[in-house]
Amino acid sequence: MNIAASWPIPQQALPDVYPSKIGGLLVASFEEVLGRQQFSQILRQAGMETGEGGVPDLPFGAPSKLYQALCDAYGEQSANGISLRTGRVMFRRGLRVFSGTLGLSHRSFRLLPPAQKILRGLDLLAWLLNHYSDQRVRVEKNDKELFLINERCPHCWGLKNASPCCPLPLGALQEGLAWACSGRQYSVEEIACRAKGDPACTYRIKRKSSG
Ligand SMILES: [Zn+2]
């Protein structure tokens, strides 16, 4: 397998935070999917205070606490559905915030062939997460597949589960692939997860055989 991402991972670790720039997107996306009232109940259940005046820097494990609170409130299956949808919304919202920084609306990105667009998009996503948060993300590839690998995933931080349990980033990747290729030619699944003892949460992206 070749390392596809060329971005250096910063040596200096950030403090263990899930910063407000991304936390704000997460909270707004949950509110859009669940409604403000229901989501504030989940926040309370997760032990996370929110005041007026925007979302502060959150503890690194905040997303996993929210996922756990969703599971407790609605059961795992519904929590997964809610998280998937929230991930899709978060991709769209994130695009509006970061598209300029990442050059995603520039011709040089838009005119790339789909496979290169996806590789480039994942590479940029890895850069974004490594630089705006304390995650450790890289991209690898073989002949047929791409892998997004996160060694410090905040979505299952501190959780133990028999199967992969990071549906929110999965939803964001699904939406990102559909956006990049204007359709559903690519599939993505989480094939390894820290919550079940794997060294990293790993998402495999591959072209559908029919497409
Ligand atoms: Zn995971």
Q: Name the CATH superfamily classification.
A: H-NOX domain
- The whole-angstrom Rg is 17 Å
Count of discrete domains:
1
Total number of strands: 7
Share in β-strands? 5-15%
Which structural class matches the secondary elements?
Answer: alpha+beta
What bound compounds does this protein have? zinc ion
Named CATH architecture: Alpha-Beta Complex
Distance between the termini: 24 Å
Overall morphology: globular
CATH structural class:
Alpha Beta
Task: Give a structural overview.
The chain has 211 residues and is α+β, with helices and mostly antiparallel strands. It has a single domain (15-207), classed as H-NOX domain. The chain has seven helices and seven strands, in the order ββααβααααββαββ. A five-stranded antiparallel β-sheet has the order 1-4-5-7-6, with helices on one face. Helix 1 (20-34) packs across helix 2 (36-45), helix 3 runs antiparallel to helix 4 (76-102) and helix 6 (114-132) crosses helix 7 (167-181). The longest helix is centred in the middle third of the chain and has 27 residues, at 76-102. It binds zinc ion. Zinc ion (ZN) binds next to loops. Zinc ion binds next to loops.
Task: Name some characteristics of this structure.
H-NOX domain, binds zinc ion, 211 residues, 49% helix, globular, 5-stranded antiparallel sheet, alpha+beta, two-stranded antiparallel ribbon
Protein topology:
Elements lengths: L1 E2 L13 E2 L1 H15 L1 H10 L12 E2 L2 H13 L1 H27 L4 H4 L3 H19 L4 E5 L3 E6 L16 H15 L4 E7 L8 E7 L4
Antiparallel strand pairs: 1-4, 2-3, 4-5, 5-7, 6-7
Helix pairs in contact: 1-2, 1-4, 3-4, 4-7, 6-7
